[in-house]
Amino acid sequence: MLCRFTLIPDGNVPIYRGRSGDTYETALLSFGFKPDAALVFYLGRSLSQDKKIEEEEVGIFLTSSRG
């Protein structure tokens, strides 16, 4: 399963390669992002981080720096 994560506003696009049933929280942690400092969007709607990844591409808005 692949999902492209477009970072807003810089436009970098990390690609998550995971297993069926993985959540957005799992993906964010794999990239080194703090889930409590990130918002996940799909078609302008906010998605819950505990949602299973089903979309092929989402936007990520980081509310603070990586760490």
Explain briefly what this protein structure is.
This protein has 67 residues and is mainly beta. The chain has one helix and five strands; from the N terminus they run E-E-H-E-E-E. It has one helix at residues 24-30, and strands spanning 2-8, 15-17, 38-42, 45-47, 57-62.
Helix content: 10-25%
Q: Indicate the proportion of strand residues.
A: 35-45%
Uncertain regions spanning at least 5 consecutive residues: none
E-strand count: 5
Q: How widely separated are the two ends?
A: 26 Å
Give the rounded overall mean pLDDT. 93
Count of helix runs: 1
Sheet with most strands: 5 strands, mixed
What's the helix-strand series? Answer: EEHEEE
Description:
With 67 residues, the chain is mainly beta. Helix content is 10%, strand content 36%. The chain is built from 1 helix and 5 strands; from the N terminus they run E-E-H-E-E-E. The protein has a 5-stranded mixed sheet, with helices on one face. The chain is globular, with a radius of gyration of 11 Å. The chain starts with a strand and ends in a 5-residue tail after the last strand.
Q: What topology does this entry show?
A:
Elements lengths: L1 E7 L6 E3 L6 H7 L7 E5 L2 E3 L9 E6 L5
What brief labels describe this structure?
mainly beta, five-stranded mixed β-sheet, 1 helix, 5 strands
